[in-house]
Amino acid sequence: MRVSLRWLSEYVELPDLAPAALAERLTLAGLEVEAIQELRAEGVRVGRVEAIEPHPRAENLRVCTVSLGNETYTTVCGAPNVAQGMLVPFALPGARLPQGLVEETHIRGVKSTGMILSREELGLEEKSPGIWELPPETPLGADLAEILELPDLVLDLKITSNRPDLLGVYGLAREFAALFRADLRELSLAFPEGLRRAEELTAVEVESGEDCPRYVARVIQGVSWRPSPLTLQARLLKAGLRPISLVVDLTNYVMLEVGHPLHAFDHARLGEGRIVVRRARRDESLRTLDGVERPLSPEILVIADAARPVALAGIMGGEETEVGEATRDVLLEAAAFAPARIRRGSRLLGLRTEASLRFERGLSPENVDLASRRFCALLAQNKGGTVAKGAVDVYLRRPERRTVVLRRARIPEFLGVAIPESEVAESLSRLGLRLKPRKDGWEAEIPFHRADLAREEDLLEELARLYGYDRIPELAPSVPPRVGRKAPEEEFADRVRRILAGLGFTEAYTFPLVPAAEGEVLLRNPMALGQEGLRKSLLPGLLGAVRENLSAQIPGGALFEVGKVFFVENEAAREEYRVGLVLFGRPDLPLSGKAPYGPAELKGAVEALLSALRVEDWRLGPCDDPRLHPFRRATILLGQEAAGVLGEVNPELLDLPGERRVLFAELRLPLLQAHARPAAYRPLPRFPASKRDLSLLAPEGLAEAEVRARILAEPLVESAFLYDRYQGPGIPQGSVSLTYELSFRHPEHTLSAEEVEEAVGRILGALAELGVRLRT
């Protein structure tokens, strides 16, 4: 934000500091100064063009006679808008301007004394179309620098998003008063009112109360289209705004002064002369003040009259109700809008303005009427019209008063320096806080314009800013540092990442936002179309990663992602960590051969992951997940709970070049974490193992994991490796042959043949309960 120090000095006495020192002090206090512009114009007076003659040797130049009242000068001017009788800024010979010194010269053989100036040449705007025509009431021969409040310093400040109160000169003056222990002068809000009441001239209806907590409408009668006073124009120009007319300029002036945007409607052009605050309807559109016809949607808040939208609420007005030369009566809007609604509308329309910038950051409804009254007071000072009696004030939701307790003992503990109580009270009071003493400190009532102050630490930070960070001694922390740890679920997720990376998988990071049709949990304020929901599975993102790899001519790969998914459970939004794996194409590894990835590789990767996590009580079961191939899919079960799925992605879901096959598995990390056993350490075995092969006949529908679990339940069994599974000739119908290599070991002695046979007998007895018998 650009702010003039001469304008600021109207409300607070400024310190006598050099520009660089002032910028440093403000930056240390959190008001970052990005640039300083020094404006100066010495020897510039108000002149009147008395006569214009063509230049004898140049078609585009004119010879002008300029009067300063008691002096007359002849100067050459090339501006196309110069006209006889107009008042202009005139630089005398020897005048000092931002561009340099004005000297008497000859232009194409004609003597030119002095110079008629544009706003650009005065340093008030970057590009001017012609010379500056001054208002007719400007006194002839007057020192223009005094009227324009020059010399002046303009600070370009970077205002953080949590401080919308600093987007106005008066809010900055309050900050300066606190920083430099100065008195803050009050704004003048008094103005005379006419006989007719505002309720007789207009009405306000707020249909969308959640989007507009307060709307204040005032009616001003008998306005005229005339330029603003020169000093007011100069202040707007220094802030980067171009003057238009008195009424329009005052809405911009008040926005820059108190930080709250206003808008003026031509009252006669409003249908039935009334205002309706509502959401836009489908198929509605609005031609805005920039001349663009903008299609609207129900997500956009508009200001309407009895028939149609007339403005984009908090963003920009409409062309049809624009204040112009024929305007005689004005309806002045002052309102508070929901920041999220204005931000959403601005983003959808691709339109950001000075008004939307302020509303997006959040403005208190308590300041709405102050801005409206300030406009009326300035209008009355400039005799710009008659304000109807009262206002139509629709106030639907009043903000609650907030208090924060500041403990006396917390100040030195938090800041490392003891601040006198009197300085604490004075500093916070200058910021607008009302302090009530307590036994242990103060209870501070937070003003409505400081929404960023919500807890004790915020008040301590304000004290540090005002006291001066450079005054706080540099001391080593008195409390020994403590090393933080990740949450258990984060540590477990990292463990899964390390295991899969060790198995040759590459980690992918995909976007969690998906179209509304693909998510159960929807966002209230999505960032863009197609990003309205949160993912309920890792599959869409991983398929996108596969598509990107194939587009980059990568023949195949193994990818994984560990991330959160979001779903609705018991009518509430839930989130859960999951791990997703995809295999596609052919392995791009040495000695890997040309065979593409198949189900065995996917199942092997899942087995290796679960084994590394020491999750043992798992098995595969039937699956009905429509995302997977109906004949190549399975559910991963832990006990009786579904821990995930694995299989081939349903070809109907794939949008990949060529005939492609993608294998996918997804597992729930909380369930894996609950079943993972801690690593068990034991000494290396001192006695040899005994190996036995065991061929079994099992019922066809029995899960192999159940057979393995019964075998491993035998205390002497160290491992069981299934190396053959057979169905066919020689095997009874309805049965399957399973052949295991078993390893037996005792930690205290070498096993005898009799002990091994007894263990095999116990295993066969346990398997008989499942209908499994020894194959003979």
Describe the structure.
This protein is of the alpha+beta class and 776 residues long. It has six domains: 2-39 and 154-179, 2-Layer Sandwich (Phenylalanyl-tRNA Synthetase, Chain B, domain 1), CATH 3.30.56.10; 42-150, Nucleic acid-binding proteins (OB fold (Dihydrolipoamide Acetyltransferase, E2P), Beta Barrel), CATH 2.40.50.140; 193-395, Phenylalanyl-tRNA Synthetase, Chain B, domain 3 (3-Layer(bba) Sandwich), CATH 3.50.40; 402-467, Phenylalanyl-tRNA Synthetase, Chain B, domain 1 (2-Layer Sandwich), CATH 3.30.56.10; 488-675, Bira Bifunctional Protein, Domain 2 (BirA Bifunctional Protein, domain 2, 2-Layer Sandwich); 690-774, Alpha-Beta Plaits (2-Layer Sandwich), CATH 3.30.70.380. Helices cover 24% and strands 31% of the residues. The chain has a seven-stranded mixed sheet, with helices on both faces. Strands 3, 4, 5, 6, 7 and 10 form a six-stranded antiparallel sheet that branches. It is elongated, with a radius of gyration of 40 Å. The termini are far apart. The model has no long low-confidence stretch (mean pLDDT 93).
